[in-house]
Amino acid sequence: MTSSVDLVAASRTYTGAPAPAVSRLSLHVAAGDAVAVLGPSGSGKTTVLRLIAGLDVPDEGDIRIADTTVLGVPPERRGIAMVSQSPRLFPHMSVLDNVAFGPQMSGVPKRQARQAAERYLDLVHLPGMGRRRPATLSGGQQQRVALARALAAEPAVLLLDEPFSALDPSLRADMHRLVTELRALLQPTIVLVTHDHQEAALLADSVAILIDGQLQQHVAAAALYDRPNSLTVSRFLGCLNEVPGHARAGRHVSALGTIDTAYPDGQADGDAVLVIRQEAIALTRADDPAANATGCIERTTPRGARTLVEIATTAGLLFAEVQPGRRYGHGDVVGLVLPADQCVVIPTASRTVTAGQVPASPVPSGR
Amino acid sequence: MRARLLLLPAVVPVVVVLGATLALGGAQSLGLMPVVGEPALNLRAYRAVVASGDLWPAITVSVTVAGAATALALAVGLATALAVRASRVGGRILGALAASTIPIPHVVGAAAIGLLLADTGWLPRLLGLDEGAWPALVAGPWWGAVVLEYAWKESAFVALVVLASLAADTGELMDTAAVLGAGRWARARHILLPLALPGLVTAGAISFIYAVGSFEVPWLLGRSSPEPLSVLAYRLFTSTDLTVRPQALAVAVVTVALSAAIGLAALGLLRRRPVLA
Amino acid sequence: MPIITPRRTRGAVVLGAAALLASACSAAVGATSEPTGPSTGAAASWDQIMRAAQGQTVSLWMWGGDPQGNAYVDDVLAPAAKTLGVTLTRVPITDTKDAINRILAEKQAGRSDGAVDLVWVNGDNFRTGQQAGIWQCGWADGLPSAALTAPGDPLLTSDFGTPVDGCESPWHKAQFTFVYDSARVPDPPHSMNGLLEWIQAHPGRFTYPAPPDFTGSVFVREALYATAGGYAQVPAQFSQQAYDDATPPLWDALNAIRPSLWRGGDTYPKDSTQLDELFASGAVDFTMNYGPATLTKLVGDGTFPATTKVLTLDEGTVGNASFLAIPVTSGNSAGAQVVADLALSPAQQVAKADPSVWGQFTALDVSRLPATEAAAFAALPASPVVPPYDVLSRHANPELAAAWVPALDDGWRRNVQAAG
User: Fold this and answer.
1) Per residue in A106-149, pLDDT tens?
2) pLDDT of the residue at A360
3) Are both C272 and C402 inside the same structural domain?
4) Which end of chain B is more exposed for a tag (fewer CB within 10 A), N or C?
5) Residue C208 lies in a domain
């Protein structure tokens, strides 16, 4: 029932748009895998799903499901199902008939289709809601029905288009648990589109970062933050610290001093920016021998349970997000510890990745 | 309560005008307000209309013509609405075309249809057809021109009502259905038609009632006999014999009753369907 | 989603249905059934009437379907009325019955300043008005111009059998005429019976408007005279006995020609306009009308073929006069009388008789006119299509009493149309 999905150098430009929505995009999703397409709004994420679903056709390139091209195959014969940001339940049908719609369309007799629908309603924890009208359900319940309806169609590929972004955080967490549960149970191939990198990391095996219609990086979900291959990706993922300088023999030399990096073999020699996530910097006493640099506290901003600290250093402002419990005052002098395995070096020349070039990055493994 | 009060300025004139009109018409048909003679409450006018043998054929013709025209208008109107939805530029042009026929009065439409479809009209001449080769649409046995005129005018109305009543997210629902495996026909049958149904029922009822009540189109394009209800009422109303005027009003009351029945049937249909969020 | 609510639907339903009633009921507002006798005009002197008329505005309600008639009233009659101090405005209507209904409604509402001051009327509409007592009476004989009509002229003393009694003033005379295309009918019949035979010999080339249309009614009466053996055989006054005696051969004759009519007699034109359209397009070879005034223009502008001719029958056709009547609801009676007198004056009658103006036959007796005015009539240009009135009205048949008209209309519907 599960199938692989491939986009092969697919491009799509909308009439009147100045730039392509998707440009020479190649993406492989193995059967049973979940891939998150992550990007800011307007980056072409939804177009990727519409191309896979057959609701839109690429100007160039190929779309393949189970290693067979589906160009020219209408949406209803692609064996897919989709859940969107809004539930899009059919208002004139009962909840049960909404869920039974997919099986019925594939020729299952009405009674059996409804029986199947009952099972899927149980799966999404809405037993006995079948007789209700969609309009009488809460937003979270409606989205569960939408999920049940998509699953009931027993798709080879399940497309999720920002399915939970309209829900409030606690409902969203519920839905995340539900999807994880359903994945374990049904193992469908999933392509998830989201702008929330935490959600991407949580639900998917690997994450494809799409910015301005171009695939920037495709990386295992667990390593999402480890090795941004460009400043664009690094910034999109929320990394605040960039120190210009140059790399030599696995070290980065800048106004901050010489820092050991994650590239001890020296593969990134030349002008380069040192990138380190604010969560990775540890603060210590100024005279701690483990400190890579010292600085002076400029400002502190609470971030939920943690605190974002701005530190003036010889290389300008650096940011550190620190554990609860520690308090810093303005003007305190601190030492900064930059763990070598968290220090990523991005060559200055590779700020932008040329289209179509598959970036050197850890290839996500199958599950 | 407040909302209901706000409706009063709209409802009161309608109820007053409508009530007064219906009451006066009813009173005249019951012999209470004769133009000549003494007022007396009786059903003489109704009996006379039935006895004349004109009433049943009139009802049959009116209902048949209005039914055929409405069915055609619904089919064409729905197709137009779908075409408008389906394509962006062509749809806009089609929508504008449909909307542009709305302000044309039926009497002008009927005259134009007459010029076009009469035995010696533009179309048979354009096609170079001899007399006899062209079907007798105007004043013919099947009321062809009357049905076509209503269908043409009302289909634009149906299209606009259906377009307005289809929710903004209909396109998304159609996409969703397609992705769930519904083909073109299944989408039309299971999604579009049910969603368009309230609009279709409403527009159909209004169109039917209009066709039953309208006079000028069957007068200009219809045959001289049998007369539809409106033409029968008009002939009796304008008769130089003032004593038959109550019969004209009796026919009018029957027409109102028929229209009200259709309206109530449409209401029943709408109510049986759930009100959608 | 914007569902049309049941409430709104119901409103639309009832509104649509009631629209039909709305017009029907307007005539009944404030209705009473109290019959009003004919009111008698004041025995005022003409000078007094002229003075009272000064500054009055008179609304003349007339059938608006004839551009020449409209132009005559607007461009000739109204300016002349202005010089007498009366403003004349023409109100076009599609059917004289509209004016009757308006007056009836105003009379029932007790109005004395009604919208209608003068109506172009005759025949059954006049009779209907008399029946309901809506006409002012006794004024018409006192008009100065009335002295120039022939005393006892039957067309002017009796309007379709209803005594005129000074309740309306003559305007012009008309003669029922058949019209044919001589190119397609080289050898036309010369009698009504001959016409009925011609119809059967030439299937599909003839039809007549369905009564109760005015022109269709006249055709049926022409056929009645022919099948009864001449107008003298049909009593002018209506009685059931006379109807039962005279009509069976009429229905037989009309049923006999029915299969030979246009469309096999399956349907009929609704009015003379539709018949004229059929004739103009060549679908039929004959048309007919009561008063061939417009014929000259229709041939002149090419609507009718140049070979159009008027068919005169050996036994003659029916003729009538049409009149101007003043309703009791008029608040401008004096002005209306001044206009009626002006309309009957020799100058206006001669202007109106010109085929290029309107071409209506005069209601005056030309022999009673002073020499100069009689000469003006003699000098009128002849129409290339329509013969002069004295030729047309030769053997003119009198009209039947108006009570015959609805009876024959109804009989036709039952015996001829229903048989189809």
Assistant:
1) 999 999 999 999 999 998 889 989 999 999 999 899 999 999 99
2) 40
3) yes
4) N
5) yes
User: Which chain C residue shows the shortest CA-CA distance from B130?
Assistant: C283
User: Domain of C331?
Assistant: 39-173+320-382
- Quick check: is C387 in a domain? no
Q: Tell me the CA end-to-end span of chain A in Å, nearest whole number.
A: 17
| A355 pLDDT higher than 70 | no
With CB atoms and an 8 Å threshold, state whether C33 touches B223. Answer: no
Domain that holds residue B231: 44-105+151-272
Rounded mean pLDDT, B42-54: 91
Q: Tokens representing B223?
A: 């045959």
pLDDT-above-70 percentage for chain C: 89
User: Is residue C2 one of the residues assigned to a domain?
Assistant: no
Residue A199 Cα, gap to closest chain B Cα (Å): 24
For the segment A239-267, the average pLDDT, to the nearest whole number, is 85
In a domain, B63, yes or no: yes
Whether B142 is in a domain gets the answer: no
The mean pLDDT of chain A is: 88
Provide the 10 A C-beta neighbour count for residue B32.
Answer: 18
Convert the pLDDT of each residue in B185-221 to its tens digit.
899 889 988 999 999 999 999 999 999 999 999 998 9
Query: What percent of chain A is predicted at pLDDT more than 90?
Result: 60
Closest residue of B to A88, CA-based? B173
B273 close to A (CB below 8 A): yes
Q: Does residue C142 share a domain with residue C85?
A: yes
Within 77-96 of C, beta carbons closer than 8 Å to B belong to: 95
CB spacing of B14 vs C15 below 8 angstroms:
yes
Q: Is there a single domain that holds both residue C146 and residue C183?
A: no
pLDDT of residue B1: 62
Q: What is the reported pLDDT for B88?
A: 66
Indicate the domain borders of chain A: 5-223, 241-350
Domain boundaries A241-350, corresponding CATH code: 2.40.50.140
Number of domains in chain C: 2
Q: Select from B181, B186, B274 the Cβ nearest to the Cβ of A153.
A: B181
**pLDDT tens across A15-58, in order?**
888 889 999 999 999 999 999 999 998 888 999 999 999 999 99
Give the A-side interface with B, CB within 8 Å: 53-55, 74-78, 80-82, 84, 86, 88, 90-92, 101-102, 105-106, 133-135, 149-150, 153, 159
CATH of residue C274: 3.40.190.10
| Residue B40: other Cβ atoms inside 10 A | 11
Question: Quick one: pLDDT at residue A84?
Answer: 92
Please report whether residue B176 resides in a domain: yes
The answer on C250 and C185 residing in a single domain is yes
Q: Is residue C21 part of a domain?
A: no
- Chosen for mutation from B4, B32, B35, B158 (greatest number of chain C CBs closer than 10 Å) is B35
Contact A105 B181 (CB under 8 A): yes
Does C61 lie in the same domain as C46?
A: yes
For position B187, which CATH number holds?
1.10.3720.10
> CB distance B277–A91 less than 8 Å?
yes
Say yes or no for a CB contact (<8 Å) between B240 and C125: yes
Q: Which residue of chain A has the CA closest to B175?
A: A55
Chain C residues with beta carbon closer than 8 angstroms to that of B119 = 281, 283
The CATH number of the structural domain formed by A5-223 is 3.40.50.300
